[in-house]
Amino acid sequence: MNKNEELRTFLLINAKRLTEEWYDSLDTNNAVGVYASTDSKVIQTLKAQNYEFHVYVCNVFIEDEKTFFEEFEVWIDKIAKDNEHTRTPLASIIKEFMRVRKQYCNSIDEFVTTYEGHIEPTLIHAWEQHIIRIFDITILKFITAAEQTSRMQLKAHQEMIHELSSPVIVIKKDVALLPLVGDIDTARAKMILESTLQQCAEKHIAYLYIDLSGVLMVDTMVAHQIFQLIDTLNLLGIKCTLSGIRPEVAQTAIQLGLSFENIRIKSNLEQALESDIKITVE
Q1: Strand, coil or helix: 218
Q2: Using one digit for the tens of pLDDT, what is the confidence trace for 159-177?
Q3: Which of 40, 82, 129, 261 is the most exposed place for a label (fewest CB within 10 A)?
Q4: Which fold has domain 3-160?
Q5: In whole angstroms, what is the distance from residue 215 CA to residue 170 CA?
Q6: What is the DSSP string of 80-91?
Q7: Burial (Cβ within 10 Å: 0-12, 13-18, ≥19) of residue 190
C-alpha cells in the first residue's frame, strides 16, 4: 500500500469522528438554515450527508480528478436539491465547506505525525494543495448546481402562480368561465394558452366565457395570442364568448388585423351569461 492509499484509509477510518467534530463545532449562536435546526431527523440527515461527503472526498488521493468528480457530482447535485439546504443561505453553506477543508488540512498533519516512516515535505505540500484545489472546484460546482435548482424552483413557482391566475371555472356542466385579471405579458399569455387548453380538455368544456374586464393593457403579441387561443378552442369544438374588452385592447386587435367576425362578443360578463347560451347560475 503506497502513501496515498494509506492516507485515504486513514481519512476513511476517521470519517465519523470528523463528522461529529464538525457538527459539534458549529457556531450555534450564528447558525442559520439547516445548521440551526433542532429537529433530530434533520440533524441525523445532515450528519449522514457530511459522512457521505468524507466517503467520497477521501478518494481524491487514489483517483484522477475526472473520475473522482464523475462520482462526486452525484453527492453535490443531491445536496443542492435538498430541501433543507435550498432554504439555507448559500454563504453559510460555503462557510461550512471551508471549515471542512480546514479539517482535511489538519487531518493530513495528523496523519503525518502518526505515520511510522518518513514522508517527503514535497508530498505533504502536494496533498494539501490537492485538497485545496478539490474543495475550490467542489464549491464552484455546488454554487452552479444550487443556482440551477433555484432557477428551476422559481420557474415552477411562476408557472403555478400563472396557472392559479388563469383558472377555468366550471359554472354549469360543460360551460366554464376564464376570468383574466391584471397585466398580461407575452410569457403569461403563453401560459394562459397552454393552461386553458389543458383545463378545458380535462373538464370536458364545450362553452367558454373569457372575461377581459380585469385586463388593463396588452401588447400586440398578447392580443394575437388571445385570439390564437380562441381559434384553437374553436378547432377543438369549444365555443367562446368574449366579454369586457376595453377599447385599447380592441384597438390593438384591429391594428393587428385580427377579425372579430367569428367571435361572440358582449360588453360585460353579465350580458355574456345571458346570451344565446342560456345559463342559470345556481
Answers
A1: strand
A2: 676 666 678 899 888 999 9
A3: 261
A4: Globin-like (1.10.490)
A5: 21
A6: HH-HHHHTS-HH
A7: middle
